[in-house]
Amino acid sequence: MTAVDERPEAEIGKARRRKEDAHLITGRTRWTDNLSVPGMLHLAMLRSPMAHATITSIDPTDARSRPGVVAVFTGADFKDVQGNVPCAWPVTPDMVNPGAPSLAVDQVNFAGECVAVVVARSKAEAQDALEGIDIEYEPLPPVLDMDQAVKDGATLVHPNTESNRSYTWVFESGAAGTGAPIDDALRDAEVTVSRRFVQQRLIPAFMEPRAVMVEPSGEGVTVWSATQIPHILRVMLALTLGLPEHKVRVIAPDVGGGFGGKIPVTPEEIISVLVARRLNKPVKYTESRSESLMAAHHGRDQLQDITITATRDGTVTGLDVHLLADMGAYLRLVGPGVPILGAFMYNAIYKIPAYRFVCEGIFTTKTPTDAYRGAGRPEATFAIERIMDELAVELGMDPMELRRKNWIKHEEFPFTTVAGLTYDSGNYEAATDKALELIGWNDLRAEQQERRDSNDPVQLGLGISTFTEMCGLAPSRVLGSLSYGAGGWEHAAIRMLPTGKVEVVTGASPHGQGHETAFAQIVADKLGVAFEDVELIHGDTASSHKGLDTYGSRSLAVGGIAIVNAADKVIEKARKIAAHLLEANEADLEFSGGKFRVAGSPGSEVGIADAALAVFAAHNLPDGVEPSIDAEATYDPENFSFPHGTHLCAVEIDTETGMTKIRKYVCVDDVGTPINPLIIEGQVHGGLAQGIAQALFEEAVYDDAGNLTTGTFVDYTLPSAADLPSFTTERTETPSTTNPLGVKGVGEAGTIASTPAVVNAIVDALRPFGVNDIRMPATPERVWRAIHGGGKHRAAGGTTAYGGASTSTSDGDGGDLQ
Amino acid sequence: MTKINVKVDGVSYADEVEPRTLLVHYLREQLGKVGTVVGCDTSNCGACTVDLDGRSVKSCTVLAVQADGGEVTTIEGLAGPDGELDPVQQAFHENHALQCGFCTPGMIMAVRDLLRENPNPSEDEIREGIEGNLCRCTGYQNIVRAAQAAAGVKS
Ligand code: FES
Ligand code: FES
Question: A494: which DSSP letter?
């Protein structure tokens, strides 16, 4: 007979309901806009209605005399102290950064830029007074089209630069020593397929508008902000405004979504700090949705020229990528680096011998861009997965067979790619086979043929996306090699309380991900304590003093491991105490289920809670041992984590109306060892919705004067429940071999994978009509035009993807069709 | 200023409001009922949804003066006196129907209203029924599940 195992049931792997929910479902929330401090004033921002103009005069006299108005400030008031909105990622040594004022001084460079701020007793009074600011502009020509922007003689966005090109970043496998020279592959190619794909501009559109509240205190400030990065914000505020860092406290209270959209340090945060300090009064600013859509950073917006080469039998021999990436008017915190993250992902899951990636960062007079869920990797995945389909057509091969022939086999891991990354693990065959079975691929193919044969007005299309991504940002030395301005480690501390309860401090900063639940599960298992006995502390630089925050699917894969390491240290410290109390040798103690026992002599045991109480009392400790078993750890990952999966999409297209309906969406994701399957599923669902939205619904559109015409939720069409299907989401589990939990990131996977699956399905449905591409979002009108325009339709024919009269929601002849 | 009498989450208030004040601003700024939130300025997101006299309304589309003499229930008034959750609140928790939680007050109010009108909705009816409420985090699937679960409890 075996002894009864007294260990509590494992927490890791359980579909725990979230600790976070209790206050969120009852309305007891602490969104920044819900907060106030005594004596607080309200801010309203005057924003430029012009995309590009010099400011010839500003007269705030009338606004200053409006009821309730305390002060009005313009760029002139802060120009000597505001510094620049920080950019932490100079991707090349000669990257041009013209500077980014928080309040425009002489010139505005995008519609929505802040030009003045009103401070008033109430928000309504502040907003009412905006119209009392008399401001005159001298218009300059807008710069909207990236191809035009880099031509000689183009209008310059910034007068202090020589061109609209901020940087050119190049990787070439021959030169890097990671593969063969690309020129050889291009020269010797048996088959070459080239395409230009357009990554349309998207808006993160987190549901909680950004808000910031600032309370000045002596030399410093306390800042509450709807941010993903309280720790980075603290450092950046100190550096930008010359504040003593130890006098700056940043708190991210409840934060209502981010998706990258709450990563950068914002002009509004800096303005709020400047105003609070100038007036020595607390202030709060909350943006409206229209302001958010117009002025909070946008994402994507790349023109992708991609060439793939292969042998006639379908072996890919080379990949050549050239990007124009729209930075918008200014470089935000990590904006220049976002497309560069894609550099490592175009080769995706394939064994490609030769590879080149060139990215030019371009200034335009549009809202600045920065990270949006996936950040560079969705764009890369889209381009490679789209062109694999086009290559398959060119070769007359089945698109899945082409992928199988070229992907890394599961027995080939670890595998170093042509981009220089080493993928630790994966099993693309297993995920693919499972997905094909779940969707009923062969039956759908048969049905597709029937519909084609019978000229059914409703055509069926099948799309594939076999993806991987790099996440868990990031090994600090890799970031260093990419000239990023910080590391990629994460910090954790564990505090053992005398009653046996546990406080866990993390530098990750959640805004919907469920850290409080997932991290408690990890700690419960590691320390053998109850899930309910673990409390997470986060998002306040006073209590969680050190961290690099939450983005890039890093919280679990990096922050979670820091917690594991801290827990290991707690156990080692407690072991000394337990050995002393048990009068045993440390080396003879086993630790499991929260208890230390002497190996081979059951009976006497000391629990981790006993050790916590023993150090609290400190009456009877071994000589020279401090009265604490608390511990902290900082973890720097050795490698990224590489989740992967196979996403399959079946669409029905009504050829008479152009309407696309997702009939079935199946994905099998491999995110390694699951900590909480419920949270994983939620992350995948939300990610899919955003990726599908790029394929079908969303685009930030500018008119030819540079005004955002999709500036409300009426025009920027987030999908509603009625627009989306139910997804079939399954998993395979190939543990990561580079971290002790075997986990991989999951936050971005759904978004990265789903866009090409949907677009490939649409193109697949339309091939009989001579269509081999479709511009995103594939609205009914675009699909209808593609069907009726036959082979003339191109996703981005010519160079008119953006700008001028050709940019419109309705795709005039100058746009899509030419 | 206009005088209004309104009952919110069981408490009666008599207040002076500006005629232009929206119900949501009255709730948040005058009553401190900040559980109800504002997600847009074009009445598209539904984050501000509350019950007014037994019907769900987007409180950013109603003037505070229109609620005069009426009874408002917000997300803060749903749980019972001992903290027991409304079945829809419970279902949202059980089915992981929220992530950041910003849309959640409005979603819960909208789902309650939907189930009042149609106690046994199909998946499509649920999806259509909550079309006026946007969520950026969940992809809606678990919200639909939560609505189905709550319907099961209620019917
Ligand atoms: S705030 Fe009322 S619908 Fe958006
Ligand atoms: S849970 Fe975040 S918007 Fe719905």
Answer: E
**CATH fold label, A21-28+489-635:** Aldehyde Oxidoreductase; domain 4 (3.30.365)
3-state secondary structure of A442: helix
Q: Do B136 and A257 touch (CB under 8 A)?
A: yes
B131 touches chain A (CB under 8 A): yes
CA-based nearest residue in chain A for residue B28: A34
A681–B39 C-beta distance less than 8 A: no
Task: Give the nearest chain B residue to A680 (CA atoms).
Answer: B96
Residue nearest atom 3 in ligand 2 by C-alpha distance: B135
Question: Does residue A800 contact residue A145 with C-beta atoms inside 8 Å?
Answer: yes
Nearest CA to ligand 1 atom 3: B43
ipTM over 0.95 threshold:
yes
Residues pairing with A323 in the sheet: A304, A359
Atom of ligand 1 nearest to the CA of B38: 1
Domain A424-466+641-818: which CATH number of 3.30.365.10, 3.30.230.80, 3.30.390.50, 3.20.20.300: 3.30.365.10
The CATH number fitting domain B87-151, selected from 1.10.10.10, 1.10.3540.10, 3.40.50.620, 1.10.150.120:
1.10.150.120
B74 touches chain A (CB under 8 A): yes
pTM: 0.95
Are A24 and B123 within 8 A, CB to CB?
A: no
Domain ranges of chain B: 2-77, 87-151
Please tell me which residue of chain B has the smallest CA distance to A209. B39
**String of DSSP letters for A561-588:** HHHHHHHHHHHHHHHHHHHHHHT--GGG
pLDDT digits (tens, 9 = 90+) for A154-204: 999 999 999 999 999 999 999 999 999 999 999 999 999 999 999 999 999
Q: Is A408 exposed, middle or buried (0-12, 13-18, 19+ CB in 10 A)?
A: buried
Give the ligand 1 atom nearest the CA of B44.
3
Interaxial angle between packed helices A749-766 and A377-395, expressed in degrees from 0 to 180 and rounded to the nearest 10: 30
Fold of B2-77: Ubiquitin-like (UB roll) (3.10.20)
Structural domain boundaries in chain A: 21-28+489-635, 33-381, 424-466+641-818
